[in-house]
Amino acid sequence: MVSQSGEASLRRWYGRIVRRWYLAVFWLAAVVFGVVALFVAVPTQYQASGQLLLLPPAQPLVEGERRNTYLFLPDGLVLTAILVANTVNTPDVARELTDEGFKSTYTVGVVPGTGPLITITVKDVDPRQALALRDEMLDRLEAEIDRIQAAEDVPTGQLMEPRRFSASTRAEELAGSRIRALIGIVAAGVVLGGLSITEVDRRLLRRAAPLEPESSPPTSASSRKLADAASGTAGQAPQNNELDGLLSLLANLPSPQSDEPQTYGQQRVTTAPQQANGNGNGHKLTAPPNMPLTDPWGASEATANRPLAPSPPGKPPGQPGQQN
Questions:
Q1: DSSP state of 154
Q2: Assessment of whether the complete model's pTM goes beyond 0.70
Q3: In whole angstroms, what is the distance from residue 146 CA to residue 254 CA?
Q4: 262-264: strand order across its sheet
Q5: Of 221 and 26, which is predicted with more confidence?
Q6: What are phi and psi of 74, to 5 degrees?
Q7: What mean pLDDT comes out for the span 20-28?
Q8: CA-to-CA distance for 297 and 32, rounded, in angstroms?
Q9: Class of 45-174 per CATH?
Q10: Is it the case that residue 234 has pLDDT exceeding 60?
């Protein structure tokens, strides 16, 4: 069962392939072309193999008779098989084979742990050439075994006998090389196609997307509260400024005993003594011509120049007195 993340990833890939279908078609055609070129340009390989086993003499050693010195070497027949196999692995033998028209690749050696067994493997695109070189190698090895024994004058009863094994009459077709090449081509096409589709789709979407404003950093709850408080204070700024002006005007009001002109911001207000009324105390507050329409006590323009009511002794002007 596909997980949710896997399903989302598949949907995203499907959307990319649908949007950039032309790239998908291109890479699919490239993979098909590579597969066709593989089967056309890369020929089928064939392999021909064979084995040569060294057998000891069948007759027992007779007292006083010459013996085969190769049989008394350390590891006996195994070391002899290694020496014989190395004789056909020299550059001189390779040049001779090339001059004779053999273009196939071959390997000759003794597999460790198998005893005195020489293995020959030949590969070629032509199965007949592979079989021909395999047989040539077997003939050369057998001739080398006879030569080294003749050089030591080994008695007939002490001769080592080579035996051929697994020398088939037909070369074997090697399909593994083509299969590996096919897997490599398909894997390369899928990987390169996926990377190109992803990169092109990302760039085109980024180019087509409108510019987005930068997002403000997240604020905590306390920061939001401070911002709300600041905004509320800013909205009430005109009211606070008006209140401050009224308080400043009240603070600059003249005392009852002072007859000097007083200054209210840019206005000058003078107080003049008034004829005492019934109780003998009182001052008249005269506002200048350019006094605002409203004064600190909310008086209208009609009553701005009206004399204030007399105040009892000990109280500042502008506060109503009590009637006795």
A1: -
A2: no
A3: 146
A4: 262-264, 267-273, 283-286
A5: 26
A6: -60, 130
A7: 88
A8: 98
A9: alpha beta
A10: no
Amino acid at 74: P
Amino acid identity, position 148: I
Q: What is the mean pLDDT of residues 44-59?
A: 88
Q: Are 273 and 283 in contact (CB under 8 A)?
A: yes
pLDDT at position 142 is 93
CATH code 3.30.70 region(s) in the chain: 45-174
Looking from the CA of 42 toward its CB, the CA atoms found within 13 Å total 17
Q: 3-state SS string over the chain?
A: CCCHHHHHHHHHHHHHHHHCHHHHHHHHHHHHHHHHHHHHHCCCEEEEEEEEEEECCCCCCCCCCCCCHHHHCCCCHHHHHHHHHHCCCCHHHHHHHHHCCCCCEEEEEECCCCCCEEEEEEEECCHHHHHHHHHHHHHHHHHHHHHHHHHCCCCHHHCCEEEEECCCCCCEEECHHHHHHHHHHHHHHHHHHHHHHHHHHHHHHHHHCCCCCCCCCCCCHHHHHHHHHHHHHHHCHHHHHHHHHHHHHHHCCCCCCCCCCEEECCEEEEEEECCCCCCCCCEEEECCCCCCCCCCCCCCHHHCCCCCCCCCCCCCCCCCCCCC
Structure tokens at 62: 């007779």
d(C-alpha 262, C-alpha 252), whole Å: 7
Tokens of 13: 């890939």
User: Mind listing the pLDDT tens digit for each residue in 304-314?
Assistant: 445 545 555 55
Residue tagged 């990833």 (tokens): 9
